[in-house]
Design goal:
By secondary structure, the protein is mainly α. It has a single domain, classed as Orthogonal Bundle (Globin-like), CATH 1.10.490. Helix content is about 60%, strand content about 0%. α8 packs antiparallel against α9. The radius of gyration is 17 Å and the shape is globular. The C terminus is likely disordered.
């Protein structure tokens, strides 16, 4: 077995330093690129707290120490993102920032692609605005129903 087959994403990213670097690149792209102004506007002017939370979350999510859970409890990602209007555009801007940040990561291209897909699934689930013609990623499918209004 190769070391890549047995290592988790946290280790493949370079551990603590690699996850920190990814978070720094992600927020640098978001902060500096005018094309991402909409997603940037959903964050506070000072990104320090946002960076810390993303780093803590990614540490555990990638198989490293569960720092976010130790400090804040279960992530409850969708609930924690409900105060922010997130639609397809915000999801796509977030993903573009993360994809660009991952381009400099030490991951092999196939692992980077898998990580992008996993991030997309999570980012898509964060959508909380109704959009015409866009399926709702919300709770209805988990509850066994369709995300359609009831008829009176």
């Amino acid at each position: 077995m190769s070391s890549q087959a047995t290592a988790n994403l946290y280790d493949l990213m370079g551990g603590d330093a690699g996850v920190h670097a990814l978070v720094e690149r992600f927020y640098r792209v978001m902060d500096e690129e005018p094309a991402f102004a909409r997603i940037r506007h959903l964050h506070p002017a000072d990104l320090a707290h946002s960076k810390e939370k993303l780093y803590l979350f990614l540490s555990g999510w990638m198989g490293g120490p569960p720092l976010y859970v130790e400090k804040y409890g279960h992530p409850m990602l969708r609930r924690r993102h409900m105060p922010f209007p997130i639609g397809s555009l915000e999801r796509d801007q977030w993903m573009q920032c993360m994809t660009r940040a991952l381009e400099d990561s030490p991951l092999a291209p196939d692992l980077r692609e898998k990580l992008v897909a996993a991030f997309f699934n999570t980012a898509d689930f964060m959508r909380n605005r109704q959009e015409a013609g866009v399926p709702d990623p919300g709770f209805a499918p988990m509850m066994g129903g369709a995300a359609t209004p009831t008829e009176e």
